[in-house]
Amino acid sequence: MSYNVWSREDIFVYKRTLAIGALVKKHDPDVIFFQEVTPYIRSIFEDLEWWNKYHCSPLSKFPLNNFASHKFADSPTGRGYLEADVTPGDPAATKPIHVATTQLERPAPPAPMRCAERHAQARHAVAALGGTANVVLGGDMSWGDDADGPFPLPAGWADAWAAMKKPLISLPSDDWTHDAVWNEEPAAFNGHVATSASMRKRADRFLCKLRDYRLSSMIGDQSVGLWYVRESLIAERWTNINLKPSCHRGVVLTIVPK
């Protein structure tokens, strides 16, 4: 599972974090890549029943071997990536998987968009991680195809969603995981009110290089059975806004041995 939990602590952070925790409990993932976890958000997660199932960090039910943390040389905000080896099941019968997570340089439209930095970081990460047989790199890539173009993947790598050529199950649209105005008031954009549809992109991705495993399924999930409503003053009148757990959807990938 990969989930940008949205670090905004001023917007119902306790209820939102519990909702995301409910999704973790529902899917029971073996490995979790979280982004934008503040110390307070982590403290809420730590009180939930599933937390103690995991080694940290990234969160993994399997022991983490060869853990390392790296910084991107060109990041103005100090971004980088984490990596470790996990072996699901019996080490004598299954091959290790190199797992890694990052949050690439995010744009700040209308400027700076950070496209050059984001491309350099993406190329650096896949080149550094590509030396092992089975790699899963996941996280909020801050990527938008309209601005950034195709993700720079070398031969042998695949974007899991694109490789399976099917929409994310349970999403109303088949190719987006982030909505810039989902939990915000409508914002001015080039002189017009930004609509949700115009601000969506598939920022959250799993990028894989697999020799001994194959892609099995992928879903995007926001359903938690609980929704929160806040009131906001828009155009001089109070309007209810349905509040989601995050401005991102969580994404879950399943891989199985060949």
Automatic annotation (TrEMBL):
InterPro entries given in the database record: Endo/exonu/phosph_ase_sf, Endo/exonuclease/phosphatase, TDP2-like
UniProt cross-references to SUPFAM superfamilies, sorted A to Z: DNase I-like (SSF56219)
Keywords in alphabetical order: Hydrolase
GO molecular function, one term: 5'-tyrosyl-DNA phosphodiesterase activity
Domain Endonuclease/exonuclease/phosphatase: 1-209
GO biological process per UniProt: double-strand break repair
Protein name per UniProt: Endonuclease/exonuclease/phosphatase domain-containing protein
Source organism (scientific name): Digitaria exilis
